[in-house]
Design goal:
167 residues, mainly alpha, 7 helices, elongated
């Protein structure tokens, strides 16, 4: 597998791990400084909050890639697999439409945030950079949901087997 393909396949894992590591590192620095010197590092909490936001949104895309988003499917378990698949596809179409709606409106929000910037108190960065994760993650969730169908196109019945825990 090429390095580029490997990076694409594991994008969410790498990014989410990176942001979680930065969050834990900044909180650890804050903890050590408070315990050792009785003071505080002003930027640590803000950095940990921003990286936590990014990690959560990226992890949501990872869940979409694995078709592991929370679904309420108990009402469909007794239905035949083809009927379950129809409802699954309908739900995913609605989910993708919802995600794209948020991605498009999120881009408008981020564009406005860059036009009228709000600067974070301790890091001194434009908060639009933090808010950029909203359209990026919702677009990525849409793409990863569609990608599940592309990868399973030959045997779509596998999608309902995933829900049963048989795949």
């Amino acid at each position: 597998m090429s390095k580029l393909r490997y990076a694409y396949e594991h994008l969410e894992e790498f990014l989410s791990s990176f942001f979680l590591a930065v969050m834990i590192g900044s909180l650890a620095i804050q903890l050590v400084v408070r315990a050792t010197f009785g003071g505080a590092v002003s930027w640590a909490e803000e950095l940990s909050r921003f990286t936590f936001i990014w990690a959560v949104y990226i992890a949501a895309s990872f869940a979409a890639k694995r078709a592991a988003h929370v679904r309420i499917n108990a009402q469909f378990i007794l239905m035949p697999p083809k009927t379950r698949l129809v409802f699954r596809m309908l739900a995913d179409c609605i989910w993708v439409a919802f995600n794209l709606f948020f991605a498009i409106h999120g881009m408008g929000m981020v564009a406005e945030a860059f036009e009228f910037p709000e600067i974070s108190v301790t890091l001194g960065i434009t908060k639009a950079w933090v808010e950029l994760i909203i359209p990026v993650a919702f677009f990525l969730m849409s793409w990863r949901t569609v990608e599940v169908y592309i990868r399973n196109w030959g045997n779509l019945a596998d999608l309902v087997k995933i829900e049963e825990g048989k795949a």
